[in-house]
# Entry
Amino acid sequence: MLKLASGMSRLGTESAFEVLARAKALEAKGKHIINLGIGQPDFQTPGHIVEAACKALRDGHHGYTPANGIPQAREAVAANLHKRHGVEVDPSHVVIVPGGKVTMFFAILMFGEPGAEIIYPNPGFPIYESAIKFTGATPVPLPLREANGFAFSAEELLSLITPRTRLIIINSPANPTGGATPEAEVVKLAKGLANHPDVAVLSDEIYSEMLYGGRKHMSLLRFPELRDRVIMLDGWSKTYAMTGWRMGYAVWPASLVEHATRLAINCHSCVNAAAQWAGIAALNGPQDEPQKMMKAFDERRGFVVAELNKLPGVSCVDPAGAFYVFPNISKLGLGAKALELKLLDEVGVATIAGTSFGSYGEGYLRISYANSIENIGLAMQWIGEWLQRRNAA
Ligand code: PLP
# Structure
């Protein structure tokens, strides 16, 4: 009998991948499935980015790169952050990693251990809680509420800090709710953190380019007083439709850069060299394709919210960002997981139960609108017909 390390039994998962596998298995049996489960843009990576990777391979970029990323990529990130957030970033504080998730795992590994507490959003990206538990630290949920547009309350967050708190994780715009925290609340948080100088913050800003209705993103990098303890996570996956390239980055405080680089050396050595050149082309090149993608997402957002609100027993608030909606399904008399299974097996629509994002997700479903408006319309029609049959029975 193999004896695994105890952390393995505490490691969770991301059910979006399980739902995807189940949906594919049903499709293989000939069933028509509409996938509103997966969290990735249904667009191709813009051509000039693909070309930059091909060119890098032709030019001989085949070897290891520095563990923290090639200097040109780190400089491109710093310039991009200056353009988007108006902040000065030292390229030597940037660490390029294979996807945003790696920054998350590194930050949690750095601060998590038995006895430590880490505050994380719930419902939130499932890997936060999973990785916290893996390290043996205590996960402390920060509830996100529909009544608050799924934005976090700075006051509530600050009230959860104890002498054991090592790290706070925030995510805006958020997965799975699409909620975005208003600027005033971020300012309140930054002010309150002055009273907790030993607490680090992982600010997951991977959806920062995906805000609607003229909203502006407020990066935690904008607070000079927090720069010695903010880890700002961002990347290419969502903005440039590059989920499969595995390209992410973080800006680390000066005192943590070496630790992050050392974790990279122990873990993956460096990111794929050609992908890094593609990442430079993405940041420095034309932005019209990501803008087109956002226009399409915005249109679908309005459509899916309107359609969901027409369904009996379902209500849905307008999401501020990302490409998810988080409808309230508590009046349907089914748990979120049971509804997810029925919608996939009986209706042919893949969605994700709110509980896959933490206990505070009960009563909700995550729907990704990274699918064509025609497919979204058809899925809403199928769900509506199924609800009518169910109500009539
Ligand atoms: N952070 C959040 C909130 C996400 O939703 C995701 C991906 O779904 C990530 C980070 C990770 O992104 P990547 O694919 O770059 O690892």
